[in-house]
Amino acid sequence: MSFTWPAFLWLLLLLPLVVVFLRWAERRRAHTAAVLVDAHLLPAVVRRPPKAHVRWPLALQLVALGLLLLAAARPVASPPLPTNKAAIVLAVDTSRSMLASDLNPSRLEAAKATARKFIELAPPSTQIGLVSFSDTASALVLPTTDRKKLLEAIERLKPAQNTSIENAIVTAVRMLPGRRDLRPPAELQVPDLSQGVPELPRPQTPLPKDLPPGSVVILSDGASNVSPNPSLPTRSSLEIAARFAKEHNVRLYTFPMGQPGGAVAQIEGRNYYIPFEPRTLEQLAQTTGGKHTYPPTEEALRAIARELGTVIRWEARPTEVTVLFSAVAVVLLLLAAGLSLHWQRRVP
């Protein structure tokens, strides 16, 4: 236990002084009675209650005084308290394929609306981060409970170029608590996280069983066409990224953005066929033990938010216990007053 104002602990020296004063007062009272009253008549004039009837209320008052003096120093304890350790990273696809209008007004706007709705439905204590990805992935917001910061970052999302879901997965996993110092798969070349993620000390990498549970929610049309390692086919690099997530206690939840059959969109004055590949996202979810949700209705989002949004763990957290000390002191004072009233017909 620590104290915010430790200097107030010197006030505890008042306790022995109070005890000395009370003993002196009791002796003086007895001496005065002996002087004024004949010794033979003293038992009839001065009523002496049993010692226990005097000492118990007094002891309770002294303990209460000590607790109040400790409370003045503002004690801080670290009891184990239930803490929501849930952490989620939203990975939003911002590639040009998300400009397709098979969702109104576009896949990107639909993904942004879905992300906002998910944030709204998640418990306030859930930490949520944000990644945007196209050719590369950008860590925009580390997992936080600051909803305003998240919503502002979502509003700033703009379309970019191609799609690399692999980069999004690896970047999102490394943003989750306890995973900042994980080494990315050797087979994949991932973007530098120095932008958007503050530099932290690099402790020894924890074992997967010691990592808190984490989740990555991917909002994409599933069309991954850029591999971090050009020598690997896209399918293989996606499998490596999914395995990386699973090995570090992270599940992937996928929300496909698009309509079956794909769409034709006009980009820079030309018409392009833009595919919709939910099967890719479904395989990622299955590999990691997550869920594939299509279409992402409000009921489905609510169910996923409820499933992912609360992971209770007992964690020692510094907590000021001044109120607790004061409350116990008040109870002891009331108890002392009750005993004194019952035994001596007076309140001390």
SSE layout and pairings?
Elements (H helix, E strand, L loop, with lengths): L1 E2 L10 H23 L5 H4 L5 H22 L2 E3 L2 E5 L2 E7 L13 H15 L5 E7 L3 E8 L2 H9 L9 H11 L38 E7 L13 H14 L2 E7 L6 E5 L2 E5 L3 H11 L9 H11 L3 E5 L2 E2 L1 H23 L4
Parallel strand pairs: 4-5, 4-7, 7-8
Antiparallel strand pairs: 1-2, 2-12, 3-11, 5-6, 9-10
Helix pairs in contact: 3-10, 4-5, 4-9, 6-7, 7-8
Number of strands: 12
Task: Count the domains.
Answer: 2
The named CATH superfamily of the largest domain? von Willebrand factor, type A domain
Q: What's the assembly state of these chains?
A: single chain
Strand order of the largest sheet: 6-5-4-7-8
The helical percent reads 40-55%
How does CATH name the architecture of the largest domain?
3-Layer(aba) Sandwich
Largest sheet: 5 strands, mixed
Strand content is: 15-25%
Specify Rg, calculated over alpha carbons.
34 Å
How far is it from the N-terminal to the C-terminal residue, by CA?
32 Å
Task: Describe it.
With 348 residues, this protein is an alpha/beta fold. The chain folds into two domains: 2-78 and 318-344, no CATH class; 82-314, von Willebrand factor, type A domain (Rossmann fold). It has helices at 14-36, 42-45, 51-72, 107-121, 147-155, 165-175, 234-247, 278-288, 298-308, 322-344; strands spanning 2-3, 75-77, 80-84, 87-93, 127-133, 137-144, 214-220, 250-256, 263-267, 270-274, 312-316, 319-320. The chain has a five-stranded mixed sheet, sandwiched between helices. Strand 5 (127-133) and strand 6 form a beta hairpin. Helix 6 runs parallel beside helix 7. The longest helix is centred in the first third of the chain and has 23 residues, at 14-36. The radius of gyration is 34 Å and the shape is rod-shaped. Mean pLDDT is 85; it is low at 193-204.
